[in-house]
Each structure stands twice: as C-alpha cells, then as structure tokens.
Amino acid sequence: MAKNGGTNRDLQWAEAKRLCRLNAETVRMAKQLGLNPRSLIKNRPNHAQPWKAPVHVWIREMYEKRMAKAAQTSPAKSLTQTRNTDAIAPDAARTVELRLPPNFDTPDDDPWDEYDTPDLPAADLDFAHDEFTYRDDGAWPGDAPPSRKKIAEQNRVLLERQEEFRIAAEYVAGLLSHIPTVRRVVLFGSVAARLKKEIPRFREFRRAGVAVWHECKDVDLAVWVDDLNELKRLQRARSRALNDLLRDRGIGVAHHQIEIFVLEPGTDRYLGRLCCFRQCLNGKPECDVSGCGAAPFLRQHHDFTFQADALAPERTEVLYDRDHELGGETDENEIPF
Predict the structure, then answer these.
(1) Neighbours of 79 (CB within 10 A)
(2) Which helix (H) or strand (E) holds 56?
(3) Average pLDDT, whole number, for the chain?
C-alpha cells in the first residue's frame, strides 16, 4: 500500500510540475514548505484572478520569506524550521490550522473536497501568518501604487488571456462545425473586439486609478442551429474541444467559460443559452426560470435580453458558416462524438 501511495504521490507532483510549469528547484521548495501538489494545481491563476502570481513565483516568495525568518532565529530553531518536511516523523508531527496566504482560494466547486492541511510542527508554519494580515482600511500591508513593470505585466496577462480565449473559440467552433444541425458560429463580445483600457476591479490598480486592458472573463459564441434536440451533442463538442485545447496547447479553459448563445436560423431570434449542467432541470436554483429546459439543455436567465447589435459585423468574427463552407456537407460518419 505504501508503495502504491508513493507512486500516486509522485504522479501528482509530476502533474503539478507540468501544469504549473515548475522546475526541479521550485518542486523542492514546495515540498520543503509542505505544500500539496493538488493545491498547487487548483491555485493556478486564471483570467478572473490576474492578481495572483504564477505558482512558481509564489512558491519562491514564500520560500524566501521562510528562509529570512529562519535566519533571524537561534541556530537550534533555524535548524528546526529549515529541515526537509518530507523527513518529519509522523509521531513527531501534529496537525495545525493553516492560515492560507492570499494566493490561495477554495471555491465551492473545487474538484477536491478541501485543502489538505500539511501535518507540520507549528514552528514550520510561522512564515504563513504575520505577512498576510489585513489592515483596518482593507488594504494589505505595504499597499502602494503598482510599478511600471507590474502594470506592463498586468497588461501582458490580460492580452495573453484574450488570445487564449480566441484559440479556445476556434477549437470549439471547429468541433461544432462537424454537427449537421449547426449552421453558423460567430464570436462576439470582448474576445472578438480590440481591447480598450479601463480602471479595473483589482484593488491595487483601482485605488491608484491606473487603467489597464479590459479583462476578458469568458468567450461568447452565437450558434445558429436547425434542431434543438441536438443540444446535448453541442455540450459534448464543447467539452471535447476544451480537452483537446489543454492537451495540444496547455491552455486551460473551463466549459462554463464558453457561453453558447443559441439562435434560430433565418430570423436570428435568440432562443437561450447552452446549459453547462450534465442533467437538464436537475433542481438547481438556476433552473427555476420560466421556459428553462423547455428544450433539453436550453437554459433561460432572469431578466436577460439578447442585444441584436451585439452581432454587428464590425464587432464579430465568423468562425464557421455552412452556407459558405467550401467543403460542403459533413459526412455523419466523420463526426468524432
């Protein structure tokens, strides 16, 4: 059992190293800090969390703070704090409550049930406390206007995320084009447009009044379909495309970040959005909307009106149009799902 457990742990660290883009040195630091590979994976920054540092940067910052704190202590205590935590005997360790630094968040829909608090002596967790305490005014200690370097980095991250979303839209449209009932796929919204600068929601930039590029939060696709009974097939195509995207390009996009607006061919009438749930009308509060689920997996939203001018040619990009497709109709036997 121990051997299998060790093998699984090694696989988890290998996966964390690949997804978080770690090297051998940062893996060593993470292990010495007692961090869990699954927690590193789930705390990769996404488009909605640009304030997060990349995992490898965050690990190094934590490690440097721990080493600096250890250097200020007595030699005996320093030895205790800097030893390799992998070598701590189980009977010498005790479980302590870990006060998480701001680079961590634990959303309710996390793939793992809860954060695994490492079993470490209290002395080994001192570094996680004092540095991350809120001030009375809601700011972090040392809050200051962002530097030019940080502004440039923030702009780079936002532009890079828009490009990743564009690639995701192309992957999804590519698989949707294999479904005979799909007539047209159009990208619209902020991902299709030239970004403008604005004061963001991020505290550090907002308080300083620094404008950065607009933050793209999701991908908006307008899809014209002939038959609403094929929406489950559209769901599978979306999931398959995003899995391919992660495998081919290392770009992670959640399926709920691909908003598919279903329209009626000929009239361009908005019918609803493609649901993200595996089961239609599964009793969630989101399903308690008039007309939601009238067609399986066609979701409705309270007080939502689809703006027709959102599909103006100058604001959109056509990713697929069956009427102008050179290859003609797709053979049913060639559809991969």
Answers:
(1) 11
(2) helix 55-71
(3) 76
